[in-house]
Specification:
The complex is a heterodimer. Chain A is mainly α. Helix content of chain A is 59%, strand content 0%. Chain B has one domain (2-167). Helix content of chain B is 84%, strand content 4%. Chain B is elongated and about 70 Å long. Classes of the chains: A mainly alpha, B mainly alpha.
């Protein structure tokens, strides 16, 4: 007896669903499209944040002041990976290597005391405890 | 009972204790942080921007050196039948250091962002603890950058030694 009731209920629910689809196909299509786009955008934003891309994205409003200073001329040509090797090539490579590494070796990034109490304007005795 | 009393003593006696770092600050120090926190946040924002720029520029240069300076030359040497084991090892170590640098920066940026987001007026001790944490993580980024520089110099030395062996 209970099984019959359950079957009737399932049939009614199924009929209602198919009736709703046939009556409002466009509305359901729009709702489906919105749900799919919300899901994909959420996944994309999650990946954007967790992959570390967000940390390097200088197009963010927070980085507007420094955006123009990003390297644009660093698209260097590769050293030729084929050809003979002789003293001239070794000398060329030395010059090429020194030129490319010079800027890095001269630039002491993340040094200094940018986050010191003094820089932040705090009483310097705080960190001397 | 003893635990409760010790807990109360820690909260009451010095200004406040920040649980995660056991940071203890006096009331006047907390007030100093609270008073200067807006200016400090502005400095933190600037440091955040300039460090992001340094990370992007440095990272680009490191990748260029690994992929456009080291790799093609090692490949060329191998094609010409010269032993490239030592140079390949130096290059691989350089790439590993790039990974260390990237990871160190990601952690530092995470901590700095946390400090920037912390409500420094209502939670000055937590704010200061976040700054201390970010400061320490920034030192690790600097260390990682120094390791990369050392590795660049090491690669240069290995290069000279390989050439010397080849010519000799």
């Amino acid at each position: 007896m209970d099984n019959d009731k359950l079957k009737d209920h399932e049939q009614e629910t199924g009929n209602f669903a198919s009736e709703a689809v046939s009556r409002h196909p466009i509305a359901l299509l729009v709702i489906g499209a919105i749900l799919i786009s919300i899901t994909t955008v959420s996944v994309a934003l999650h990946l954007y944040k967790t992959s570390g891309t967000a940390q390097l994205d200088l197009s963010q409003p927070d980085f507007q002041s420094v955006r123009d200073q990003a390297n644009k001329d660093d698209n260097i040509a590769s050293f030729p990976s084929t050809g003979e090797l002789n003293e001239q090539v070794f000398n060329d490579y030395r010059k090429f290597y020194d030129l490319q590494t010079k800027r890095i070796l001269q630039n002491d990034s993340f040094a200094g005391k940018s986050l010191s109490d003094e820089s932040l304007g705090f009483d310097t005795s705080i960190s001397n405890q | 009972m003893v635990t409760v009393l010790v807990g109360l003593a820690m909260v009451m006696s010095p200004g406040a204790v920040y649980a995660e770092t056991n940071l203890v600050l006096a009331d006047d120090q907390i007030q100093s942080i609270r008073d200067g926190c807006k200016q400090a946040k502005s400095v933190l924002q600037q440091v955040h921007s300039y460090d992001a720029l340094a990370r992007v520029n440095s990272g680009q240069r490191y990748e260029n050196i690994a992929n456009r300076v080291m790799a093609p030359f090692i490949s060329r040497m191998a094609i010409n039948g010269i032993n490239t084991v030592a140079l390949s090892e130096a290059s691989a170590n350089f790439k590993l250091r790039i990974k260390d640098f990237t990871d160190a920066y990601a952690t530092y940026e995470d901590r700095l962002s946390k400090a920037i987001k912390t409500d420094c007026v209502n939670h000055p001790v937590e704010f200061y603890a976040d700054i201390l944490d970010a400061r320490q993580k920034r030192t690790l980024v600097h260390d990682a950058a120094q390791q990369l520089n050392t590795q660049l110099e090491k690669y240069r030395q290995v290069f000279e030694s390989v050439i010397k062996d080849h010519n000799g």
